[in-house]
Specification:
binds adenosine-5'-triphosphate, about 280 residues, binds magnesium ion, eight-stranded mixed beta sheet, Carbamate kinase, single chain, alpha/beta
């Protein structure tokens, strides 16, 4: 019994310097679609984010929804294809992605945060002109995928004063054309625009792997220069994620982290303990 008490107290004491360091700071959290699949983990995530707000951090959530979008596309017999980590998006794909992201997943996350005791507000790239997008350079290969050219943080700052902002990664251009936006890119650019202290990417692997097929090959730490060097050789979802880590750091973040969203409370472990989990990118 005493032993258990000792370790609880030790854990709280370990957290104290971090709580002090992070007080009043903005942390952008990318919530990956793959980490959202399990009901228990979804509840844990909401509880963790609410705790961050209570201890004085300013959490901003940006979410993806890859697996769920794929599931609905398959229901509708639409072809699912990726090119260099980006979803190949024709007009129908963009429509489904928006319905799933903004219509379903975003409001579910908002509801869960509300239920756990901190009111949240959901928004997409169009709200308050949050994202200005243009077609990506390789639009011929990927279709309506947008690249974020500018983030207007005004709306976020207003909301974050009282609520937890929850951002769905979709956006439209001035003509009203909708685009799919990779959620990692959105998170990296939001972190940079807000001058966030940290950016944390929850995903479905233990971190950046030297060999994607070998979970024991995790790269625990890398500099932005090392990331830049390896970017062209990266595949799948890891490429936009590491690009986003670099964006966040160039925008002033002290570190960016890719952590395993399948591990319960990995967000709290990363923020408030000395445990070195996932991959940490530093300037
Ligand atoms: N070098 C690598 N290290 C780790 N994972 C890699 C690597 N290369 C490719 N991957 C793949 O990247 C995936 C994570 O990115 P993915 O885009 O699928 O999910 P997410 O970004 O967390 O969620 P969402 O795209 O819905 O926002 C992993 O499941 C893994 O298969
Ligand atoms: Mg992804």
């Amino acid at each position: 019994m005493t032993g258990a008490h000792d370790s609880s107290v030790a854990t709280l004491l370990e957290a104290l310097p971090y709580i002090r360091e992070f007080h009043g700071r903005t942390v952008v959290i990318k919530y990956g679609g793959a980490a959202m699949l399990d009901e228990g983990l979804r509840e844990d995530f909401a509880a963790d984010v609410v705790l961050l707000k209570y201890v004085g951090l300013n959490p901003v959530i940006v979410h993806g929804g890859g697996p769920e979008i794929t599931r609905y596309m398959e229901k509708l017999d639409l072809e699912v294809r990726f090119h260099e980590g980006l979803r190949v998006s024709d007009a129908e794909t963009v429509e489904v992605a928006q319905m799933v992201l903004a219509g379903k997943l975003n409001s579910e996350i908002v509801q869960r945060l509300n239920r756990h005791g901190q009111p949240a507000v959901g928004l997409s790239g169009e709200d308050g002109n949050l994202f200005e997008v243009a077609p990506v350079a390789n639009a011929e290969q990927v279709g309506f995928v947008g690249s974020i050219e500018r983030v207007d943080v005004d709306v976020l700052n207003h909301i974050a004063a009282d609520y937890i902002p929850v951002i769905a990664s979709s956006a439209s251009d001035r003509s009203g054309q909708s685009y799919n936006v990779n959620a990692d890119e959105a998170a990296g650019k939001v972190a940079a625009a807000l001058g966030a202290h940290k950016a944390i990417f929850l995903t479905d692997v233990v971190g950046w792997l030297e060999d994607p097929a070998d979970e024991s090959s995790r790269i625990s730490q890398a500099t932005v220069a090392e990331v830049d060097e390896k970017l062209p050789s990266l595949e799948g979802g890891m490429r936009p994620k590491l690009q986003a880590c670099a964006d966040a750091i160039r925008g002033g973040a002290q570190s960016a982290h890719i952590i395993d969203g399948r591990a319960p409370h990995s967000l709290l472990l990363e923020l408030f303990t000395d445990a070195g989990i996932g991959t940490m990118v530093i300037p």
